[in-house]
Amino acid sequence: MGETPMSHWHGLGGSYLFQSYGELVLDGLAVYFQKLSGWILVMIPTKIYSIALGTLVFTGGVIAISAPGQTSTQKISQVSSHSYQVAQSTVNTGAIEASVLQQINQYRSSQGLGALTRNSALDAQARTHSQNMASGKVPLGHQGFQDRLRASGVGYNAAAENVAYNQGANDPATQAVQGWLKSSGHLANIRGNFDLTGIGVASNSQGTIYFTQIFMRAK
User: Fold this and answer.
1) Could you tell me the domains of the chain?
2) How far is CA 93 from CA 82, 83, 127, in A?
3) At what angle do helices 93-110 and 172-181 cross, to 10 degrees?
4) Measured distance CA(200)–CA(98) in Å, rounded
5) DSSP output for 66-132
6) DSSP secondary structure letter of residue 6
7) E strand or H helix that includes residue 183
8) Cα 161–Cα 73–Cα 125 angle in degrees, nearest 5
9) Any residues with CB less than 8 A from the CB of 104 and at least 6 apart, and which?
10) Of 195, 202, 188, which Cα lies nearest the Cα of 217?
C-alpha cells in the first residue's frame, strides 16, 4: 500500500465495505482494500482445495454499494443454453449455470431467504468475465467488477460477486457451489439481501470450467 494511510480492521469472514484505505485481518491473513472512484473493493485471499477427482479454486467475493442517483431499466429474462468445445467433449455451460442457480436458490430457501431472479444483462456480464478468465485475458478474480456493474445497465443499491474455477469434477456446478458455501466470504454474498443474479460459466481447452455469479439488489 506504500505511503497510503492505513487502518487496521478485524472481522469474521465476509465481504466488507469501508470508507477509507486499510487492512483487514481475515483468518490470520492480511487483506488490503482500496478506494477506487468512490467505491471500496475488498479482495479476500484465493483459496485452493484439492478434492477427489478434481481441483476447486475460488477467490474471495467482493461487494460494492452504488453511487446515489444511479438509474436504469431493469431487464429480467431466462437465458438459453450456451456450449463451448473443450478437447473431445462438450461442456453444456447453460445447464451448469441453471444448476448453480437452482442450488443457490435451494440454499437461500432453506435459510428463509427469497429466491434470486436471473437477469439477462447480468448473465451477459458474468459470462463475459468467465470467458475472459478461461482464455487467460484476466486472472481469476474480480478485475473489472465495477465495469461489469455499469455495463449491465441495471439500477441497484448493492451488488456482490463470487468467482471460482474447477477441473475434473463429475458435477462442476455442485463443486463450485459447495466450495462457496464453505467459505464465509462467499457465503455472506449468497445469503445477502439481493434479488437479482447473473451467472456465467465458460471453459477452456484444458477442461477448466470458470464460474462468475453476480448478486444485485435492484432499485
Assistant:
1) 115-218 (3.40.33.10)
2) 6, 5, 10
3) 30
4) 10
5) PPTT-------------EEEETTEEEEHHHHHHHHHHHHHHHHHHTTPPPPEE-HHHHHHHHHHHHH
6) -
7) none
8) 30
9) 116, 177, 190, 197, 213
10) 195
pLDDT in tens, 92-143: 999 999 999 999 999 999 999 999 999 999 999 999 999 999 999 999 999 9
63 three-class SS: strand
For the record, the C-alpha cell of 193 comes out as 439481501
Contact (CB, 8 A) for 210 and 134: yes
Cα–Cα distance for residue pair 6/129, rounded to 1 Å: 31
Task: Dihedral sign for Cα 112, 117, 123, 125, please.
Answer: negative
Query: Within its chain, how far is the Cα of 72 from the centroid?
Result: 22
Q: Return d(Cα 189, Cα 202) in angstroms, integer.
A: 21
pTM, two decimals, is 0.68
C-alpha cell at 126: 458474468
Strand 196-203 to strand 208-218: parallel, antiparallel, or no bridges (unpaired)? antiparallel
Query: 3-class secondary structure for 14-60?
Result: CCCCCCCCEEEEECCEEEEEEEECCEEEECCCCEEEEECCEEEEEEE
Residue with cell 455451460: 93
Which three cell numbers, joined as nine digits, stand for 155?
A: 439500477
Across 152-175, average pLDDT:
93
**55-94 pLDDT, tens digit each:** 455 555 555 544 333 322 222 222 333 444 333 347 899 9
